[in-house]
Design a protein that fits this description.
With 576 residues, the chain is α/β, with parallel strands linked by helices. The chain has 18 helices and 16 strands.
Length: 576
């Protein structure tokens, strides 16, 4: 029995081994069939990266020969929006020209921190100056050297003299003062405004902060306008190609061979991405060592005058305060004012209604041939400025919100002591408050600035009735301004064109030393900057013409109250 059991166990083991062997062979055969049935993998070659499309633009630089700004053809990366396009344009200006006849506007090391576009046709470019050189630290002596010198007399310290470059460049940045600064700012302004149709003015920041000037000559507290009198009206320049180089080799054996075979030339340099074009031939102009003086530049500027009127628009007669400020600032200009008195007030209307009324008013002023438009209505500036700019087309537009916001921010930045970080208070109509137009404009320049809006609806009828300094006006001022006093605001914006008539009552209800910002005066300064030199009227006193959509004897009295004198004849017009 034991032997028979052992044989049976051995046979079982043999059968088990045979089964494992057969199973393995079957598995291997199955795997081979599966591998043979699979398709043969093909090697896929990835497509070459898609090159970034380029866009041919004109970058404007100053010429040292004639003092004018000439366009240089340049390819920049194509952009999907205005902000990316602004960055490409500004980077090209900071890089400098490639044509030898043009001048580099900014010193080496300047960069672009940010760029964005505001709704009223203003582009903001935030520049960063080169970082000052870091002084090398003086190495401390080792313990062995310190021990050896313990008994020795301590030598006198040698004064460290900074490199001459740091002394010459850091304080002034530009060596020729106003000439360099004008060239730098106008290169940016002309490049942006001539390539981006929706931009007509440029605000320059340095290190994220508003600055008064770069080197003490150009006023940067207001948006910069292109100086078209110095823009050369000609085809863009192209950077010249490298001179051909003749390779060494045997001379031609016959005159005919010499005339038929051109010498080999070196390939174009890869450093100049703009190729030569038959339409834009390169020019060779020697580059002088010095820029033209300001006196020679004045002789180059043509004397021109533009007698067309400046158009001003408001929902009623409150915008006459803006008209008066513009008339005082530009006494030679003809002014055409339109008050939509049949539909006032705009401050209680819906956004869609205000935008529709504003388009109709602007269309009427454009039909009278105005050369610039001033939206002398805070509500229309807050709710419909983009629609007005679109309706105006090529005619430049100035609203009252942007200038007032920038003036308020300048005042707030100049404060010191208690309350310097208090919010900026904006007194306005209900529609302007609901839009937060002043708050958005201020935060676009200073994101960390706090703005509080206060609606003061009774101020408008009080101003029109002439109740500006009686007990009713004082009671309304105390009621409306209580939150402003509690917030300790030291800068208060009069965000409605009616409110300057109550400035004395408003100031009496606020703590002593509170600064009132009248957007009418700031708007007048910006209109003067907008017109530049050639768009202004030269000559005697200008004329003022008032248009209204509803005329009455009361309206004449109110208009005279706002102007501070008897109102001129009112022309009744009808808006569709």
């Amino acid at each position: 029995m034991p032997r028979r059991f052992a044989l049976a166990l051995l046979a079982l083991l043999i059968l088990l081994l045979l089964g494992l062997l057969v199973g393995r062979r079957v598995h291997e055969a199955r795997q081979k069939r599966q591998v043979a049935a699979r398709p043969t993998p093909t090697r896929t070659i990835p497509p070459p990266p898609t090159p970034i499309p380029a866009r041919l633009v004109s970058i404007w630089f100053e010429s040292a020969e004639d003092g004018l700004f000439h366009p240089e053809a340049r390819e920049v990366p194509a952009a999907v929006d205005d902000v990316a396009f602004l960055r490409s344009l500004a980077a090209a200006v900071l890089e400098g020209p490639r044509h030898p006849a043009l001048l580099k506007p900014f010193p080496d090391g300047w960069t672009l921190r940010a760029a964005f576009r505001l709704a009223d046709g203003i582009a903001v470019l935030d520049l960063a100056p080169p970082a000052p050189p870091t002084p090398m630290p003086t190495p401390e002596p080792s313990p062995v050297e310190a021990a050896g010198k313990k008994g020795a007399k301590k030598p006198e310290p040698t004064p460290t003299i900074p490199p001459p470059v740091a002394i010459a460049e850091l304080p002034k940045r530009w060596e020729t003062g106003s000439s360099e600064e004008v060239g730098a700012t106008q290169s940016l302004v002309l490049t942006v405004t001539k390539n981006v149709h929706a931009v007509s003015r440029v605000i320059l920041l340095v290190g994220g902060e508003p600055v008064e000037t770069l080197a003490g000559h150009v006023d940067l507290t207001h948006p910069l306008l292109p100086d078209l009198s110095r823009a050369a009206d000609e085809a863009p320049l192209v950077a010249p190609m490298p001179e051909p180089e003749v390779t060494s080799g045997p001379a031609p054996t016959s005159p005919s061979a010499a005339g038929s075979a051109a010498p080999p030339v070196a390939p174009p340099s890869a450093a100049s991405p703009v190729p030569s074009s038959p339409r834009l031939p390169p020019i060779a102009v020697p580059r002088p060592a010095a820029r033209p003086t300001s006196a020679s530049r004045e002789r180059l500027l043509p004397h021109m005058t533009d007698d067309r009127p400046i158009g001003l628009f408001d929902s009623g007669v409150g915008g006459l305060t803006v008209l008066d400020a513009v008339a005082r600032r530009l006494p030679s200009e003809n002014l055409l004012y339109l008050g939509d008195t049949a539909r006032l007030p705009y401050g209680t209307k819906s956004v869609e209604t205000v935008r529709r009324y504003a388009r109709r008013a602007v269309s009427l002023l454009l039909s009278r041939g105005v050369k610039a438009l001033v939206v002398a209505c805070n509500t229309a500036s807050a709710l419909a400025l983009d629609a007005i700019v679109e309706e105006a087309g090529d005619v430049p537009v100035v609203g009252v919100v942007g200038p007032g916001a920038r003036a308020a921010l300048r005042r707030a930045r100049g404060l010191t002591g208690p309350g310097a970080e208090a919010p900026i208070a904006v007194l306005a109509t209900e529609a302007t408050v609901a839009s937060d137009a002043y708050g958005r404009a201020i935060r676009s320049l200073d994101p960390f600035r706090t703005v509080m809006n206060v609606a003061c609806p009774l101020f408008v009828p009080l101003a029109e009735e002439g109740w500006t300094e009686n007990e009713v006006a004082r009671a309304a001022a105390r009621l409306y301004l209580a939150p402003v006093v509690e917030a300790r605001a030291r800068v208060v914006v009069l965000g409605c064109t009616h409110y300057p008539l109550l400035s004395a009552t408003i100031a009496a209800a606020l703590p002593e030393g509170t600064l009132l910002v009248d957007s009418a005066a700031s708007t007048a300064v910006e209109v003067e900057t907008l017109l530049g030199t050639n768009a202004r009227r030269e000559g005697g006193a200008g004329e003022t013409h008032l248009l209204v959509t509803d005329a009455s004897e009361r309206l004449r009295r109110v208009a005279g109250r706002f102007l501070g004198r008897e109102a001129a004849a009112l022309e009744l017009v009808d808006l569709p």
